[in-house]
Structure formats: structure tokens, C-alpha cells
């Protein structure tokens, strides 16, 4: 790692290299890792290419977001140009794209069949399109495959729902969330997942083991809301879901994976990069399709420190934008103007009310009022849509604020938010997510 970091620093300190072109053979790709603080742009010179299922527009220079790890793939051959500094760039003809697009074709046929069933007045099961859950160990390319499947479906006119259960990274919004959003067009190379209509439930931690039962409850709430939407929209129902999952696939992680398959009624499981997991799921879920796919050799391994930095960048992007072109708004509220709650904690019942010999058990979904203190500085709080505290666990959130100061004497809390104005709710949810702006 030290050698890599030194090499990266050397690249940043050197003058930017001149633009360079790569001629790609059919069914090959150019793999590029982008530095966090050095701009890089890509231009399609000839032919056609795509980045994770989204076509690269011809001629114009397209900025690649910092810290991205992309693969510019061509089906029929192309010439592309890179302008700027990268951490690494190389071509490869060893790619599983043909396998992935074949999987997409099968899913597309199922969507078409579900649409026909809906028109013919078929039952809910017949009119349900594929509910695809993508699983695999850490750094197996799950979120990348999800983007491809979503973009390819959207390119054909479908509007599949993307569900993100990976609270460690967060591809729809910040980490610590279970979320979903419809995908109406191929995912933008620069802007990423659209955020016009997300459904977001706040877990508040990057690791499900902190409160696994609360994680299950929030998955159930999200699934319930999506079922209501599908019941009134035949097109969305036929388009189905693509569900991204965490990379924790053993012990409790495996248990949560099985729970997710049941909760969202997944009917297709795509397993990336681990035959053992494929066999276990095939035995555990004999009535649904469990398919093993090769992972791309271009997937980059990330250690825990890198993941922690990525979480910080995701939080920063929420307030400042991917290109650092947004200006969050600072505001001050009285302690009495807001109420902060934590999900999980406290005992279900006092010892005196329990059977002899029984130990009190923590209630994973109980709401605990949190006193505002200086410990909240640098933490992220979610703004709940709930009208009353007891609705918090079943309500999605409006957005997030970052606490920058707590004045105990004056009883004032200072925070930044993405937009100006009063908060849409006085009910806030505490978390263990921190971000240090410096």
C-alpha cells in the first residue's frame, strides 16, 4: 500500500501527460483508475463504447468522477482518448461482458412476458418481472453489474427499480441507508444514480452487526412500500428490481442475505465470484434461479482504510456534489426546536417483570431519545418524514444534515444542509456516521 500511495503522489506531482489514444479491439476494454484530486477526461474518437452499460457520447470530452474505477468497453471496436492524469490505465480482452449481456437478455425476456401477462389480465405472480438480487463477496463487482443491468434495461425502455442494501458504501445516497429508486434512463457516467425520487430508510451505521434486527426491519419497510407501488403500476412491476447487496456473505452476513431474498421476493440470484456461496444458495433456495457468474478481472481490491475514506467522500458528495460544485447552507436551531432519537437500545422490560432467571433483552427497534451534546459534532443526522416519534422506524427520510457545532450554554445546534430553509421535520435520527470536513 505504501508503494502505491507513493506512486500516486509522484503521478500527481508530475506534469500531466499529453492526451493519448487507445485503439480497442472488439469485445475488449480500457480499464482506468482515477485519482482523487487529478482531473481526467475521456473522448470517443471512433466506433462505439460504453461504461458500465451507458454509451459514451461521440467526440465530446467527458469528465470522469474522481476516485472512479471504470472500464470502457467496446462490442465492435473503437478508439478512445484519455486526457489528464490517472493512477493506472491498461487494455484487456479478458472480460465477462458477453456473459453479463446474455444474463440481461434472459431478464429482458422475462420482463416482456410479465408485460404480456399484465395486459392479458394475468395474476400478480405472472405479471411480476424479474427481481434480481446480485450477491458475492467484497470486491466482486456487484454494484458494477447492477449498473450494467439497469442501464441496459433502461436503454430498451424499461424502468426497473434499483434497490441498494449495501449500507457500507451507498450507491444511491450516503452510507448507512437502505434505499431504492426507479431508473428511467441509462445511468449518467458523470452524475451517477438519479436522485429525483429515492426511497431512503436510515439505518445509521456502516455495519449491519451493530443492530441486525433493525436492519431486517428497515428492509421489510422498504419492501412493503415498493410492493404498494408495484401493485398500482403494471409497467414498474413488469420491469422488476435489481438489488445490490453487501459483501459480507458468511455467518450473520449470509443470514441477512437469505432474509433479503425472502423480504424482496427475489426470483433470480446472480452470484459473483464464489462457487461456495452459489452452492449454498442453490441448496437453500431450490425454487428460484441461482446463477453463477464470473467476476471481472478488472475489479480492484480495497482495504478497510480505503473503504472508510470512500464513505467520507460519499458524505462529502452529498453536501458538496461530485464535482465539488455545490454550496451547502449553514443554519442554527435551538435544542428545543428538534428532537433526536436513536433506533435500538434500552430494555424491553424491567427484571421484575421477567420470568425468574430470564435476562432483559435489548429491543433492537425501540426509539431512545438522545440528549444533544458536543458528542454530536461531526456526525450525520437523518431528517425523518415521520409526524410522530413512534412512526420513525416505518418512515423514510427526507435527507441529512451534518452537525458542525453544539453550543451547550446557549442551547444552539449548528448544522449544514444541502439546501436553505427550515428542516422539513423536527424529528432527527442519530447515527454513528462521522465526517470531518477538513
DSSP helix fraction: 25-40%
- Across the major sheet, the strand order is 13-12-11-14-10-15-16
CATH topology value of the largest domain: Rossmann fold
Question: For the CA atoms, what is the radius of gyration?
Answer: 23 Å
Q: Main beta sheet, described?
A: 7 strands, mixed
CATH superfamily of the largest domain: P-loop containing nucleotide triphosphate hydrolases
Question: Shape from CA axes?
Answer: globular
Query: Which structural class should the secondary elements be placed in?
Result: alpha+beta
Spans of at least 5 consecutive residues whose pLDDT stays below 50 are: 1-13
Span of the ends, CA to CA: 23 Å
State the domain count: 3
| Number of helical stretches of at least 4 residues | 8
Total strands: 23
CATH architecture of the largest domain: 3-Layer(aba) Sandwich
Strand percent estimate: 25-35%
Q: Overall pLDDT, averaged?
A: 91
CATH class of the largest domain equals Alpha Beta
InterPro entries: Clp1, Clp1/Grc3, Clp1_C, Clp1_C_sf, Clp1_N, Clp1_N_sf, CLP1_P, P-loop_NTPase
Binding site for ATP: 29, 69, 139-144
Keywords: ATP-binding, mRNA processing, Nucleotide-binding, Nucleus
Pfam family, one: CLP1_N
3D structure, described in words:
It is built from 8 helices and 23 strands. By secondary structure, it is α+β, with helices and mostly antiparallel strands. The chain has 3 domains: 78 residues, Sandwich (Jelly Rolls), CATH 2.60.120; 197 residues, 3-Layer(aba) Sandwich (Rossmann fold); 103 residues, Pre-mRNA cleavage complex subunit Clp1, C-terminal domain (Elongation Factor Tu (Ef-tu), domain 3, Beta Barrel), CATH 2.40.30.330. Strands 13-12-11-14-10-15-16 form a 7-stranded mixed beta sheet, sandwiched between helices. Strands 17-22-21-20-23-18-19 form a 7-stranded mixed beta sheet, with no helix packed on it. The chain has a 5-stranded antiparallel beta sheet with strand order 5-4-7-2-9. Helix 2 crosses helix 3 and helix 4 runs parallel beside helix 6. The longest helix is centred in the first third of the chain and has 23 residues. It starts with a helix and ends in a 9-residue tail after the last strand. The N terminus is likely disordered.
Amino acid at each position: 500500500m505504501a508503494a502505491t500511495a507513493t506512486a500516486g503522489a509522484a503521478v500527481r506531482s508530475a506534469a500531466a501527460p499529453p492526451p493519448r489514444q487507445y485503439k480497442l479491439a472488439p469485445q475488449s476494454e480500457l480499464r482506468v483508475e482515477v485519482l482523487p484530486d487529478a482531473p481526467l477526461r475521456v473522448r470517443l474518437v471512433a466506433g462505439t463504447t460504453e461504461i458500465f452499460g451507458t454509451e459514451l457520447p461521440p467526440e465530446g470530452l467527458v469528465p470522469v468522477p474522481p476516485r472512479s474505477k471504470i472500464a470502457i468497453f467496446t462490442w465492435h471496436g473503437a478508439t478512445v482518448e484519455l486526457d489528464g492524469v490517472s493512477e493506472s490505465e491498461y487494455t484487456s480482452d479478458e472480460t465477462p461482458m458477453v456473459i453479463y449481456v446474455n444474463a440481461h437478455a434472459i431478464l429482458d425476456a422475462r420482463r416482456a412476458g410479465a408485460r404480456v401477462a399484465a395486459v392479458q389480465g394475468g395474476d400478480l405472480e405472472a405479471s411480476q418481472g424479474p427481481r434480481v438480487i446480485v450477491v458475492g463477496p467484497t470486491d466482486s463487482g456487484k454494484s458494477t453489474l447492477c449498473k450494467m443491468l439497469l442501464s441496459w434495461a433502461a436503454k430498451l425502455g424499461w424502468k426497473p427499480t434499483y434497490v441498494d442494501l449495501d449500507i457500507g458504501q451507498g450507491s444511491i445516497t450516503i452510507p448507512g441507508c437502505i434505499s431504492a429508486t426507479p431508473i428511467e434512463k441509462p445511468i449518467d457516467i458523470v452524475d451517477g444514480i438519479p436522485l429525483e425520487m429515492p426511497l431512503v430508510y436510515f439505518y445509521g451505521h456502516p455495519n449491519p452487526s451493530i443492530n441486525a434486527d433493525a436492519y431486517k426491519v428497515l428492509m421489510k419497510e422498504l419492501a412493503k412500500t415498493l410492493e404498494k407501488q408495484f401493485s398500482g403500476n403494471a409497467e414498474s412491476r413488469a420491469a422488476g428490481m435489481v438489488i445490490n447487496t453487501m459483501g459480507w456473505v458468511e455467518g450473520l452476513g449470509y443470514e441477512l442475505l437469505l432474509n433479503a431474498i425472502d423480504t424482496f421476493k427475489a426470483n433470480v440470484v446472480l452470484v459473483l465470484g464464489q462457487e461456495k456461496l452459489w452452492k449454498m444458495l442453490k441448496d437453500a433456495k431450490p425454487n428460484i434461479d441461482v446463477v453463477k457468474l464470473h467476476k471481472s478481472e478488472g475489479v480492484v481490491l480495497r482495504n478497510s482504510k480505503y473503504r472508510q475514506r470512500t464513505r467520507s467522500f460519499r458524505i462529502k458528495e452529498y453536501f458538496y456534489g461530485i464535482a465539488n460544485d455545490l454550496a451547502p447552507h449553514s443554519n442554527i436551531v435551538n435544542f428545543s426546536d428538534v428532537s433526536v432519537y436513536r433506533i435500538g437500545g434500552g430494555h424491553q422490560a424491567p427484571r421484575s417483570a421477567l420470568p425468574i432467571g430470564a435476562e432483559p433483552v435489548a429491543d433492537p427497534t425501540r426509539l431512545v431519545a438522545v440528549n444533544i451534546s458536543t458528542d454530536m459534532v461531526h456526525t450525520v443526522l437523518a431528517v425523518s418524514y415521520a409526524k410522530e416519534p413512534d412512526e420513525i422506524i416505518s418512515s423514510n427520510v427526507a435527507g441529512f444534515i451534518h452537525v458542525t457545532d453544539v453550543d451547550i450554554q446557549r442551547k444552539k445546534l449548528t448544522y449544514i444542509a444541502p439546501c436553505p430553509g427550515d428542516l422539513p421535520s423536527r424529528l432527527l435520527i442519530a447515527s454513528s456516521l462521522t465526517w470531518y470536513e477538513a
